[in-house]
């Protein structure tokens, strides 16, 4: 009599039969062919309009996906779990079906999972209705949220932002919801019946030149949701209902971007073409950086919401190497810009970025490094790119991007190892 396969045995068999590229391509259109090792697509987790979702080792069962906008990261099992809101065992059973493990006649291994699969079948009946789309979830939340400057101000002050930096004009794009859904709900069902938490919601808008003029318009493209703790003074820390005891990251997301927000931002103030702009990644970073930099009352903050949006892409050297001696923006993918802006611009660059170590060797598990060129015509070498180097590159891309459109621009960095919100809480 054969012993029952362990969970690890079942996962290994799925990885042997399926590639992560084939799994993800069931839901996301990817570039390249099934034999490609690296492929890209539009992220399903925040409805991206750009190819921000990267799949490494796409032709392998051991590959992983990563979104450079919303930060999602995981293997094929995590992808199915997060996309469908399923616990691990349901995702495993679904992938076993996709791999053909459950369709092998009298295969004893498939039969051993029947208890899990019967439970999964029952859940699928309940899930005949697909969950609402990200943009529809965002619309519902924005519609039912209300303006409550006091609640929003309480949260920012809890994060150390001085009260004088968060006047009514800088909170105009924010709303508050005491019972905000933490994840999507089946179409046609009541959103109030899913798990909820208090939340600060910000309208995400994209600057576009519109009309025959043309004139600059701020077009709403989605919302940015920050879930709060019960006191409303910090972010939420709450386990996902489907999390297992041994999950590496069992927590619900503290923040969500709902809608095609990839090139959008949150405006912190009354925008004017000649206003001095303070631009950083997150709302707290921008407000904290403005306080540290002694911003004037009529200066405007802009939260670009992602590092990729803040800095744009680096123009790579031959064979995709990073030219450390000559950092230039990719003209096809510049940093966040506002057409026809004429005022000065300050980039707020956090200094707590993680090193980039590259892909892992399949045999040893050790990082292979990132291809870089240290000097012109120099050799391409593989090494880690440090957090300090990433911050420097971000600042250079930001400054060169804004100067290319005629603006006076500078970049300032938070103290080493910190973001600006850390710095203001430390009194630096």
Automatic annotation (TrEMBL):
It comes from Novosphingobium clariflavum. Residues 41-96 form the Zinc finger CHC2-type domain. Keywords: Metal-binding, Zinc, Zinc-finger. This is CHC2 zinc finger domain-containing protein. SUPFAM superfamilies: Zinc beta-ribbon (SSF57783).
């Amino acid at each position: 009599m054969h012993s029952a396969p362990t969970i690890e045995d079942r996962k290994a068999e799925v990885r042997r039969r399926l590639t992560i590229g084939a799994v993800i391509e069931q839901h996301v259109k990817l570039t390249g062919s099934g034999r490609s090792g690296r492929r890209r697509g539009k992220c399903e987790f925040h409805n991206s309009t750009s190819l921000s979702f990267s799949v490494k080792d796409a032709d392998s069962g051991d590959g992983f996906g990563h979104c450079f906008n919303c930060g999602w990261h995981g293997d094929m099992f995590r992808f199915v779990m997060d996309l469908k809101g399923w616990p691990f065992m349901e995702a495993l059973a679904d992938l076993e079906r996709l791999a053909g493990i459950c369709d092998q006649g009298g295969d004893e291994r498939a039969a051993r999972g029947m208890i899990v699969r019967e439970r999964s079948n029952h859940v699928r009946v309940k899930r005949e209705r697909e969950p609402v789309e990200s943009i529809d979830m965002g619309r519902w939340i924005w519609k039912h949220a209300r303006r409550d400057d006091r609640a929003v101000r309480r949260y920012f002050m809890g994060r150390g932002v001085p009260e004088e930096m968060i006047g009514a004009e800088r909170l105009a794009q924010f709303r508050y919801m005491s019972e905000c859904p933490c994840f999507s709900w089946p179409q046609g069902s009541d959103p109030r019946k899913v798990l909820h938490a208090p939340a600060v919601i910000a309208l995400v808008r994209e600057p576009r030149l519109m009309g025959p003029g043309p004139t600059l318009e701020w077009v709403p493209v989605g919302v940015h949701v920050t879930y709060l703790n019960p006191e409303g003074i910090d972010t939420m820390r709450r386990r996902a209902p489907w999390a297992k005891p041994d999950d590496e990251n069992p927590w619900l997301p503290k923040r969500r971007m709902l809608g095609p927000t990839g090139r959008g931002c949150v405006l912190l103030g009354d925008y004017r073409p000649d206003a001095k702009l303070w631009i950083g990644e997150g709302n707290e970073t921008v407000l904290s950086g403005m306080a540290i930099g002694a911003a004037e009352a009529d200066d405007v903050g802009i939260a670009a919401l992602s590092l990729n949006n803040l800095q744009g892409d680096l123009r790579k050297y031959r064979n995709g190497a990073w030219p450390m001696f000559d950092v230039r923006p990719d003209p096809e993918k510049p940093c966040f810009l506002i057409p026809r802006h004429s005022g000065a611009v300050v980039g707020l660059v956090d200094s707590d970025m993680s090193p980039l170590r590259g892909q892992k060797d399949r045999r040893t598990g050790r990082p292979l490094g990132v291809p870089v060129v240290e000097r012109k015509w120099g050799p391409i070498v593989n090494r880690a790119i440090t957090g300090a180097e990433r911050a420097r590159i971000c600042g250079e891309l930001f400054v060169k991007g804004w100067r290319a459109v005629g603006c006076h621009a500078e970049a300032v960095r938070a103290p080493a190892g910190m973001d600006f919100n850390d710095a203001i809480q430390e009194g630096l």
